[in-house]
Design a protein that fits this description.
Number of strands: 53
Pfam families: Hydant_A_C, Hydant_A_N, Hydantoinase_A, Hydantoinase_B
Domain Hydantoinase/oxoprolinase N-terminal: 7-212
Family: Belongs to the oxoprolinase family.
Strand order of the largest sheet: 18-15-14-21-22-33-32-29
Protein name: 5-oxoprolinase
Domain Acetophenone carboxylase-like C-terminal: 552-714
Oligomer: single chain
Shape: globular
Distance between the termini: 75 Å
Length: 1264
């Protein structure tokens, strides 16, 4: 059979990369603009036309169908789906969802992405409208005490279901007809529990298709996995994107004779496998573009003989994609793109908003890179389109990009070279700005920076930003970052690879000869994949092994049949079985595969999945749980048709390794200074050639910078490997503030806190810490002052500083020793409320006599004893009723874990009348060990930093970082002070608001507009209360620092410096300064919210948000559940409030309704937005939520809420938000409705319904 041309094409956002396999087995590459409407309609079509025309020597006119007799196959990766998602340019879609859940996807997990943004912005939903389908399926429960006389059925998992409401087909038909009349052609369907009972969705789908809807995406078909929210998002993405993909494919095919009939056309899916064009759907296409690069890295950079793991580093124009490969592709089942959670097998790719087009700023003493991007149009300054200063400009100014070697595709007519002069001018302007700022704030110590100093600084800051996702991808899963090869590809990556590898301690860099188009080459290497998956709900135990084997065989047969239909023979097909496994009572599931065992245990014919799960869990989380069942949520089989091409080639060997031909010599700037730099053409280099840094290696599609001290070697295949030097030639940093190093140290300090958090999440055992992430980690100076705090939970911010300072004052350095770890949670010791355990470790360095730093973390323990399960009693009146208390407890002393004394104190609350000791000692102890481990990680990272820079430099930059934050807050206060004096005649601000019991919280802020200092005076605040809403001083400090950070309005380091200009005065004996024995559990979750409302009202920043966390607990002796529920956010001067969102001092997630109903004896009857509960005005407050719980057995319900008496205020003429309500509908009394008030604990019976109505946000301005 005659060989034909093959094309592997990666259509990116800016460029389309093409790898061509000729009929004789040789290859060529091509790169062209993805968008060039003046010359061609479609880049892949144009690429194929050009190649065929040039190769056969026959003109093929544009616009005419291209003959296909010379084309054997086409493989494509495309960003069509991703771009449509990002730009919200998909197909008009209507969502069909179970009645009562109209707003389920709008609310999502109720958390906000940026905790300090008062104007809360989330990406728009993908659907235009919603149809609520009148149907309801319940899981049958053995503990259910409700009477049920309806139909029962069996789901795909063999679990029993109860049909409370069959599909109301008559009403559905009316609703669908109305939508069809409006021209909608695409539907997404997600009905509760359809992952295991798809019949109702199938009824809906059949009706819709019969009525003429062209695309119907059923969530049970797309991805039958538990969790309605991500499954619903996935179905919506599929319905929204699939028609656009089909439209693109139809347009592409129309450019060829006979619509590409007879040509094998395959598309890359998000999971790294190719699929036939007719199987390429929207939900599997999101990562189609970057997936080819990951496959390319896995098959080119990884050496099976050494098994050294590889980090894929794909740096593009707007972002950088990072992946890891260690012998098999890593998949995740859930990722978020453009605000949409996709639930499908996808390659594990981390993305950071830093690329060649990332914009460069100097802001208040800091060098900032991104996240804003110059994009392709207008692009960086040097693109000659009136663009923005960007990373590409910095590389050009430093001589690392050579315009003579770059294609002349810039300017308005796309025919000019890169513009060095304009880039230099823009960099000069930002240099002058930075120098002026530094001279103003430190005239004596000021050291003038050159333009190249500033450009180098921006590159260093960009590199540090790109190091962070690499650390996350490795260290978060228990791997040592330095024990990896950095495999670099993408147009911009080669310019940064050596510096990034050096910063991460990596010893080598690998750059493939096709590095500039590796995503396209990866498509040529990839295999065809067909997957089959079904839900399960069985324990992984001996009695179920035959069941799992049967289901794996059945799914394998489906995969084999699909691949055989595509022409693969049996010997070219392999199958990989996976089980999606988790421990009982956890949400952290791992997708596990297992090698076939050599033993003859037929029960494990597909391998020992339990061992695989335990190994993976131990590696990733640091422990296993010996007494917990392992549940299989899903069974998945990945069928692989081996079709990947392999290009075997070697290049000529060099006679002299050190005689590499130099193309030219240029001048580049590095940390070592200005250096003469040889330039080499990759095509002219031979196998074995050595290229010593500094050097530039150029090929047709990328530029590689070989930094000083590094050595590049050309391999037999023509690839480049770089041995990384130690970087010792770099200039030593002084203690004087340098804005470049200030930015880098800001990243490094924050990275320490983030990595502590990853270790804590990895090693914790409780749902609260491992899945809800209810913890915060921080780094403190030797005086206890906050340096860096990873922004996890706002109410923890600032509060931990008081805790560390208390220990310094209370214990003193004489009573601290290396190896000690201190546990505290008491309000008088800087605690917020008792469930928040703070673990503090002093850091000693090289036998120092006193601590040089402190590391600490604060985590919420689900139960520490007290009046009620969950240790959140709504009716406590004394601290000793709220659980175990610790003031300065040596959790670890001299390196020994003090477990016996710890257990005694955790059990101590049982001595209090009506109370119990901790109800879950094992989780307490395990989580505390995890908190200790997180601190140990912080200690190691701090000591590494000191080793690298010296104690004097690190401590100096801790001070500089704090000073930088102080300057930002002072500048903000000066502006507020001046504005207040102009409008009111004095720089004094005042506000008051009330707790539901009438207690006022009053604040006067007196600003010195000359110095930027302010006094926050809470005189007028009401007295301590006989209840749990007293707030310790640490909570007030946390609220103040949070609000200050919000008011600054842009990213600044959050540390002690923010509080330096602030004096806080709280009179004794108030609700904010209660006696040390006062109950405080509600103060942390409710009074903290009112404090934020009062502070923001004082500054007239925005209207009140819901002002409540809506703490709901239910349970009995056998189970307990706790959650907080979202409400409305306040409107502001230029924005509407967001509906159904957590605000201010909390940001915890809510449990998916399918998970709730599977694990607990509860029915969520409805969960949606509370219409018109946001205050009216020019800008409207966000709406609160409606959440109805029907109890399936007798339980105890506890509620701890606010804003049930005093409504969230509006500002500047805006109206109030509606107050919240807590209602109980009592079944035994014919549905009698009772208002429960704001705070209570009541027994509820099976059939009772708790109706929660959360407050709306206040409005801003008078309605026009």
């Amino acid at each position: 059979m005659k060989e034909k041309f093959g094309f592997a094409i990666d259509r990116g956002g800016t460029f389309t990369d093409v790898y061509v396999r000729r009929p004789d087995g040789s290859s060529r590459v091509l790169k062209l603009l993805s968008e060039d409407p003046q010359n061609y309609k479609d880049a892949p079509t144009e690429a194929i036309r050009r190649v065929i025309q040039e190769e056969i020597g026959k003109e093929l006119p544009r616009g005419e169908p291209i003959p296909t007799d010379q084309i054997g196959w086409i493989r494509m990766g495309t960003t069509v789906a991703t771009n449509a998602l990002l730009e919200r340019k998909g197909e008009r879609t209507v969502l069909l969802v179970t009645k009562g859940f109209k707003d389920l996807l709008f609310i999502g997990n109720q958390s906000r992405p940026r905790i300090f943004d008062l104007d809360i912005r989330l990406p728009d939903v993908l659907y235009d409208d919603v149809i609520e389908v009148n149907e309801r399926v319940l899981l049958k429960r053995d503990d259910c005490q409700l009477d049920f006389d309806g139909d029962e059925d069996t789901g795909t998992t063999e679990e029993k279901v109860q049909i409370r409401q069959h599909v109301d087909v008559e009403q559905l038909g009316v609703d669908l007809l109305e939508v069809r009349k409006r021209g909608v052609k695409s539907l997404a369907v997600v009905l509760l529990h359809s992952y295991m009972y798809p019949k109702h969705e199938q009824i809906v789908g059949k009706m819709a298709r019969k009525m003429g809807f062209e695309n119907v995406s059923l969530s049970s078909d797309i991805m039958p996995m538990i969790k309605a929210v991500p499954r619903g998002f996935t179905a919506c993405a599929d319905a929204y994107l699939t028609p656009k993909i089909q439209e693109y494919i139809a347009g592409f095919s129309s450019g060829f004779a006979k619509q590409l009939e007879g040509v094998q056309v395959l598309f890359m899916q998000s999971d790294g496998g190719l699929c036939p064009v007719q199987s390429f759907f929207g939900s599997r296409a999101i990562l189609s573009g970057p997936a080819g690069g990951v496959v390319g890295v896995s098959l080119t950079a990884f050496d099976p003989s050494t098994k050294e793991p590889v980090i894929g580093f794909d740096m593009g124009g707007t972002s950088t994609d990072v992946s890891r490969y260690a012998g098999e592709l890593d998949h995740v089942m859930e990722t978020t793109t453009a605000g949409i959670t996709i639930q499908a097998p996808q390659l594990d790719i981390n993305t950071v908003a830093a690329g060649g087009g990332s914009r460069l700023f100097f802001r208040r003493g800091l060098f900032v890179v991104g996240p804003e991007s110059a994009g392709a149009n207008p692009g960086p300054v040097c693109y000659r389109k009136g663009g923005y200063l960007a990373v590409t400009d910095a590389n050009l100014v430093l001589g690392r990009i050579l315009p003579d070697y770059f294609p002349k595709i810039f300017g308005p007519n796309e025919n000019e070279a890169l513009d060095y002069e304009s880039a230099l001018k823009a960099m000069t302007e930002v240099t002058e700005e930075a120098n002026a700022s530094m001279k103003k704030h430190d005239p004596k110590g000021f050291k003038k920076m050159s333009v190249t100093d500033v450009a180098l600084g921006f590159i260093d800051v960009a590199n540090e930003a790109m190091c962070r996702p690499i650390r996350a991808l490795t260290q978060a899963k228990g791997y040592d970052t330095s024990h990896h090869v950095l495999a670099c590809f993408g147009g911009a990556g080669g310019q940064h690879a050596c510096a990034i590898a050096k910063a991460l301690g990596m010893k080598s860099v690998y750059i493939h000869r096709y590095g500039g188009i590796l995503s396209a080459y990866g498509l040529a290497l990839a295999d065809v994949v067909h997957e089959a998956q079904e839900p399960s709900s069985r324990n992984y135990e001996s009695g179920n092994l035959s069941y799992f084997n049967e289901r794996i065989e059945a799914l394998s047969a489906i995969c084999r049949a699909a691949l055989e239909k595509q022409g693969f023979s049996a010997d070219h097909i392999t199958v990989e079985p996976y089980l999606h496994m988790r421990y009982e009572r956890t949400d952290c599931a791992l997708m596990c595969t297992a090698a076939v065992e050599t033993s003859k245990d037929n029960k494990k014919s597909h391998g020992d999945f339990k061992s695989a799960f335990l190994d993976a869990y131990k590696r990733e989380f640091g422990f296993v749980i010996s007494d917990r069942n392992i549940i299989v949520d899903d069974i998945r089989v990945r069928g692989i048709g081996k079709s990947g091409l392999r290009e075997e080639r070697t290049i000529e060997k060099a006679k002299d390794a050190d005689d590499a031909p130099v193309d030219t010599t240029t001048t580049c700037f590095f940390k070592e200074g200005r250096m003469d730099t040889n330039v080499y053409q990759l095509s002219a280099l031979k196998s074995g050639h050595h290229v010593k840094g500094p050097a530039i290696i150029i090929d047709a599609s990328s530029t590689m910078i070989i930094e000083p001290g590094c050595l590049a070697t050309i391999t037999d295949e023509g690839d480049v490997t770089v041995a990384i030097g130690d970087g010792s030639a770099a200039n030593r940093i002084g203690t004087q503030v340098d804005p470049i190093q200030l930015s880098i140290f800001s990243h490094r300090f924050m990275s320490i806190a983030e990595q502590m958090g990853r270790i804590l999440q990895r090693t914790a055992i409780s749902t609260n810490m491992k899945e809800r992430l209810d913890f915060s980690c921080a780094l403190f100076g030797p005086d206890g002052g906050l340096i860096a705090n990873a922004p996890h939970i706002p109410v923890h911010l600032g509060g931990m500083q008081a805790t560390v300072k208390f220990q310094i004052d209370h214990l003193g350095f004489d009573n601290m020793r290396d190896g000690d770890v201190i546990l505290c949670n008491h309000p008088k010791a800087g605690g917020s409320h008792l469930p928040d355990f703070t673990v503090i470790t002093p850091v000693y360095y090289q036998n120092s006599k006193t601590p040089v730093f402190f590391v600490a973390n604060r985590g919420h323990h689900a139960d520490i004893g007290g009046l009620v399960p969950g240790s959140m009693p709504p009716h406590s009146t004394n601290l000793n009723q709220e659980g175990a208390a610790f003031i300065s407890f040596k959790l670890v002393e001299g390196g020994s874990f003090n477990e016996k004394a710890l257990i005694e104190q955790l059990n101590a609350p049982g001595k209090v009348p009506g109370c119990s000791g901790s109800r879950n000692l094992n989780d307490n102890i395990s989580d505390l060990r995890a908190q200790v481990a997180a601190n140990n990680k912080g200690i190691n990272l701090v000591c590494e930093l000191i080793d690298a820079y010296g104690m004097d430099v690190v401590q100096a930059y801790m001070g500089h970082i704090q000073s930088n934050a102080e300057i930002a807050v002072r500048e903000m206060l000066k502006e507020f002070g001046r504005n207040a004096r102009e409008s009111a005649g004095e720089a004094k601000l005042h506000a008051v608001d009330y707790m539901d019991d009438g207690t006022p919280i009053e604040l006067t802020v007196d600003i010195n507009e000359e110095t930027g200092e302010a006094t926050f005076d809470f005189t007028g605040t009401g007295p301590e209360v006989y209840g749990s809403c007293n707030a310790p001083p640490a909570v007030t400090m946390a609220a103040v620092i949070y609000c200050l950070r919000c008011l600054v309005g842009h990213d600044i380091p959050l540390n002690q410096g923010c509080m330096a200009p602030i004096t806080i005065h709280i009179p004794p004996g108030t609700i904010l300064s209660a006696h040390e024995s006062a109950a405080v559990v509600g103060g942390n979750v409710q009074t903290s919210q009112r404090l934020c409302d009062v502070i923001l009202k004082t500054f007239s920043a925005c209207a009140a948000s819901q002002g409540c966390m809506n703490n709901i607990t239910f349970g009995d002796d056998d189970m307990g559940y706790y959650e907080t529920v979202a409400g409305g956010s306040g409107a502001g001067p230029t924005w509407n409030g967001r509906s159904g969102i957590h605000t201010h001092m909390t940001n915890t997630r809510i449990t998916d309704p399918e998970i709730m109903e599977k694990r607990y004896p509860i029915i969520i009857r409805q969960f949606g937005l509370r219409a018109n509960s946001g205050g009216g005005g020019k800008f409207k407050g966000g709406d609160g939520c409606v959440r109805d719980y029907e109890f399936r057995k007798n339980l105890t319900l506890s509620i701890l809420t606010e804003r049930r008496v005093f409504a969230p205020y509006g500002l500047n003429g805006g109206q109030k938000g509606r107050k919240g309500q807590n209602l109980l509908r009592i079944k035994a009394h014919d549905g009698r409705l009772v208002n429960l008030g704001a705070k209570t604990s009541v027994p509820v019976s099976a059939g009772d319904i708790f109706e929660l109505r959360t407050p709306g946000g206040g409005g801003w301005g008078k309605a026009e």
